[in-house]
Amino acid sequence: MSDFPQLPTALLPDDAVEVGRIGEAWGVKGWFKVFAHSSEPEALLSAREWFLLPASHGPKCPFDGTVRLAVREVREHGGVLVAQAEGIDDRAVAEQLRGARIHVARSAFPVPQDGEYYWVDLIGLTVVNREGVALGVVRELMPSGPQTTLVLEGEPQDGKPCQRLIPFVSAFVDQVDLKARRMTVDWQPDF
Q: Domain 16-108 belongs to what topology?
């Protein structure tokens, strides 16, 4: 087995977002497959610096803690992403990265188009309706067919957790204000 190169240790950026994981080696020149957490992996395709953490399970990575990986190239190939990085020059070395979790600094993400948002930016927003009634906080987003659904956690009612599901479509979402960390929707509390 090839000796694993010394990757630079790094601190995980405060705004780091886990965007994928490394799969098996691809080819003989150090390329490897990448499994994105998103169906639209713009951050993986554009960032030239990834922060790797060891796999949470599976094969043991040849490093501990956080390391920085300088990305040479990432591209789509046959429905999967493949990548090559500095210092990863043969198949055996690439195979040792299998399972490593890929993080990218949120500040390195491409700027979204007007009216488009990264899911990570919507998590934690306070959601109110047009009348100013607080409906909850966005805890997650759920793909549901042709649209995405907001999953809100609201104040407990009668001692029971309150969860609301609101389609994230323009028919219901009036405004998203990322700076104010607030979203206004056309939705009633009893829905």
A: Elongation Factor Tu (Ef-tu); domain 3 (2.40.30)
Please, which pLDDT band fits residue 64 given cuts at 50, 70 and 90? confident
Is the distance from CB of 27 to CB of 112 less than 8 angstroms?
no
Q: How far is CA 170 from CA 16, 77, 116, in A?
A: 29, 34, 11
Who's near 167: CB < 8 A, 6+ residues apart? 144, 147, 148, 149, 150
Cα–Cα dist 181/171, whole Å: 20
pTM over 0.85: no
Both tokens of residue 59?
Answer: 């094969």
Q: Report CA dihedral (110, 113, 116, 118) to the nearest 10 degrees.
A: 10
The CATH number fitting domain 119-185, selected from 3.30.70.1050, 3.40.50.720, 2.30.30.240, 3.30.70.940? 2.30.30.240
Segment 35-59, tens digit of pLDDT:
999 888 999 999 999 999 998 776 6
